[in-house]
Every structure is written in C-alpha cells, then in structure tokens.
Amino acid sequence: MRAHLALRFGPASLVASARVVATTFAAATLLVILVAADLGTGDVEIGLLAALRALLVAEDPNALLVREFRLPQTTVAVLVGAALGLSGALTQTFARNPLASPDILGVTRGAALAAVVVIVGATPGGYGAGLVEGTMQRVGLMPAALAGGLASAGLLWILGWRRGLDPRRLVLVGIAVGAVLTALTQWLLVVASVEDAASAQVWLFGTLNGRGWDHALPVAVVLVVVFPLALLLVRHLNTIQLGDDAARGLGVRLQRVQALTLLAAVLLAAAAVSAVGPLDFVAFAVPQIALRLTGGSRPPLVASMVCGACLVVAADLVCRSVLPAGVPAGVVTAAVGAPYLIWLLIRANRRNSV
C-alpha cells in the first residue's frame, strides 16, 4: 500500500503520495544546486557557495555580478522550465497520451510563427517593412506568441473534434498542424532580409542569452494565474483518466475541463516561447521523467514544474560552461529530448506488435 501525506494550506488541503512529495523535494534541492552553479559560472568564475552568499548578502563583493548580470537570466530559465513542465503535464494528462505535448501538437509552432512575424516585420529592412517599430518588437512579442498559440490550439480543436476529442486523432492532427506552421515559418525566413532571418533563426533555436527581468515578468504573471487553475483541475483530470464515459458518469463536465486544461497549457507554452523561443522537447520529456520518478498514473504537476526548471537551468549551465559562446539552450534540450522521443516510439511499437 502506498503511503500518503495530507498537506493543509489554510482552508485548503491536498493529499499526495509520500513518493511524490519526496521526489519533488529532491528535485527542488537539485534545482537550488543548479541555480547556484549557474550563478557562479561565466567569464568570471566564482564558487557555488560564493554565488549563494552573493545572492543573500547585499554587501558581498560578488553581489553586483550575481544579482545584476546573472540572476535575471537564471530566473528566466527557472520560470520557463516550470511553465513548460506544467504545460506538458496538463496536455499529456487530459489527452491520456505521452506524445501530446505542446511542441508535438504544434501549439509552440503557432506561437513561434506569430513571434517570427513580429521579429521579421519589426525592423525597417525586414519583411513588411514599416508595419511595426522597435518598441512593438519589444512589447508585442508576448501578445503575438499568445495569439499564435491560441490560434493553433483553436485550429487543433476544430480539426480534431468528432463527437469529442480522441487522443490519437488529436496527436495526428497536431503533428500535421505543426508541420504546416513550421513550413510557414520557414517561408517567412526565406522572404525576409538576411539580417532579419539570422536574428529570427537564433531565436527559433530557443536561447537564454541576454534574457532579463522584462522577459521573466510575463512568464511569472502567467504562472501565478494559471497554477491555481491547474490545481483546481487536478481532481477532474484524475477522473478523466478512467475514460470519457466514466468521467461523464461521475459528473465531470468533460468539454469544459478539456477546454480549460488546453487553454491553461497554451497560455503557459506561449509565455515560455515569447520569452526564450521554442525550447523543444522540454514540455514533452519532463512530465514523463517526473511520472517515472514518482510512479503515479499521470504526470504530477508540481514535480513536472520543478523537473522542467532543473532541465532548463542545467541546459543554461552547459551552454555557459561547456559549449562555445552563443550556442542556444535549445540545442541542449533537443539533444536530451530527441533520443527520448525515439526510445518512446520504439517502445510503443514493440508493445503494439506483441
């Protein structure tokens, strides 16, 4: 029998298995270590403990370096990883399919396409010159990515609907939608000027270089708004795991729960994409890693957030300490996620052939 812990926060209470709590605590401890290592790594190397001391003590000699120059980028990495981890856990849970992550379903591709339109069109010499100015490029990226993510999710919903949402059809439609959106993005890069195309291409790899508080704030706001909604949906998502008919029989308003879950996932993915670009495979791999660590029946939401933050901060740390300067973090996350996707497909193929 699995041990469970009852967690109480004022009038609210939550029951979680001891393994989930222990795994989440261990992942949070790893995250603190990774954050300290990330803050201590750069052109001027300082130790892990020195980075933590500089973060906590204002009079420390390294406080300016850590707080002003490195902390904003590391904070963006933590928030983006948490947002992508939660987004992937929500989509995989409601679709009951480990392939149903925002990047596989084409949601992040829609957000990326809209953001590239802004990036390419915001410079005087770029595609659609004069449509948007430099200020629009800075403040318009987030709304554009959000609109693109919502539009692609709406298209996915319409094309995947046939007397309900079938998980297999949803994944197949999502792959097709993602392919079309990727083709449109590539077409935009072809017709843009060389400078604009190069700028957009770097962003499309998913990079944390030069990210500051202005990039962190929108992601933090979305997390603060969406995370409580995700916790409220947990009970219904657990019921949906029994099947659509069983969930309806137990009083779950299936379409409303699916719509709210997809909306929350799209908001999280779009916010993350607008901040750093599409970090491929984070939303796909992290919830399954958290699921295998916790041993439950569906991806755990909080553990997925912490594991996602660990992966993105670790990617930033590798880029700062191992890889040549300027290599985007998306290269590292793709190197981790792509082999995992191949392994998952081979494993599913063997299971179906038995």
Short description:
With 354 residues, the chain is mostly helical.
Structure description:
This protein has 354 residues and is mainly alpha-helical. It has 14 helices and two strands; from the N terminus they run E-E-H-H-H-H-H-H-H-H-H-H-H-H-H-H. Strands 1-2 form a two-stranded antiparallel ribbon. About 3% of the residues have low confidence.
Question: What's the SSE blueprint?
Answer:
Layout: E1 4-9, E2 12-17, H1 18-39, H2 48-56, H3 63-95, H4 102-105, H5 107-121, H6 134-160, H7 167-191, H8 194-204, H9 213-240, H10 244-249, H11 254-276, H12 282-294, H13 301-321, H14 329-353
Antiparallel strand pairs: 1-2
Helix pairs in contact: 1-2, 1-13, 2-3, 3-9, 3-11, 3-12, 3-13, 5-6, 5-7, 5-8, 5-11, 6-7, 6-11, 7-8, 9-11, 12-13, 13-14
Count of runs of 4 or more consecutive helical residues: 14
Major sheet:
2 strands, antiparallel
CATH topology: ABC transporter involved in vitamin B12 uptake, BtuC
Approximately what portion of the residues adopt beta-strand conformation?
under 5%
Helix share, percent: over 70%
Main location: membrane
GO molecular function: transmembrane transporter activity
Protein name: Iron ABC transporter permease
GO cellular component, one term: plasma membrane
Supply the key terms.
ABC_transptr_permease_BtuC; ABC transporter involved in vitamin B12 uptake, BtuC; 354 residues; mainly alpha; cell membrane; 74% helix; ABC_BtuC-like; transport; two-stranded antiparallel sheet
